[in-house]
């Protein structure tokens, strides 16, 4: 069976250290956010952890609320805000949409709520709230939701080009945001065409490699998370 994704570990060496990134590539049309409110191990989906969320009851229980837009055009379950309905934050948000030639494209917009996104992209298929690499985006009202800018931590990135999306997690060591941006550029991903998703202990990739399910990212892959970004059209049990 031909899989609708490819997987590889990409490595680079810097200052005498090796940095590894797990990269799952799929077509833009297959990038699907899904609210799960459980461990990724409890789902058969292939993909990475998604946007930011509140964990008032700790990370061994279902999350208490999302804090990033999660929308798929064919799902009735969605979350409509970056932040909360009462305290929205304009953050960098991924959008896949159908263009005038009926081709799925990827782009980004800064928005605080789903309505603002759909007003600009009425043919949106997927909308996923994240953030960018600018230091100013890592402060303010909801800064506590995001691993800090200058401290090394596990990281999750969604990048894209004209054809594919790249679901990326740090695979062997933690990095800070300036280092993450530099590494994305070195590996050939344009930071403009990418968003940073939740990180720290939430960073997880679930992927089938050689008919076996593997996990990459943070050592705490049993964490309960609010949503994930999955490859639409495939489930892999086991």
Concise overview:
The chain has 238 residues and is mostly beta strands.
- Identify the strand order in the major beta sheet: 1-2-12-11-13
Main sheet makeup: 5 strands, antiparallel
Point out poorly predicted stretches: none
Which quaternary structure do these chains form?
Answer: single chain
Q: What structural category characterises the helix and strand content? A: mainly beta
Overall form: globular
Total count of helical runs of at least 4 residues: 2
Radius of gyration over all CA atoms, rounded: 16 Å
Kindly state the mean pLDDT as a whole number? 95
User: End-to-end distance, in Å?
Assistant: 17 Å
Strand content: 35-45%
Count of individual beta strands: 16
How do the helices and strands follow one another from N- to C-terminus?
A: EEEEEEEEEHEEEHEEEE
Helical content class: under 10%
Features:
5-stranded antiparallel sheet, mainly beta, single chain, 238 residues
How is the secondary structure organized here?
Layout: E1 6-14, E2 17-27, E3 31-39, E4 45-49, E5 53-54, E6 65-66, E7 70-72, E8 91-98, E9 104-111, H1 114-120, E10 124-129, E11 156-160, E12 164-170, H2 177-186, E13 194-196, E14 204-209, E15 212-217, E16 224-235
Antiparallel strand pairs: 1-2, 2-12, 3-16, 4-14, 4-16, 5-6, 7-10, 8-9, 8-10, 11-12, 11-13, 14-15
Word description of this protein:
The protein has 238 residues and is mainly beta. It is built from two helices and 16 strands. A five-stranded antiparallel beta sheet has the order 1-2-12-11-13, with no helix packed on it. It has a five-stranded antiparallel beta sheet with strand order 3-16-4-14-15, with no helix packed on it. Strands 7-10-8-9 form a four-stranded antiparallel beta sheet, covered by helices on one side. Strand 1 and strand 2 form a beta hairpin. The mean pLDDT is 95.
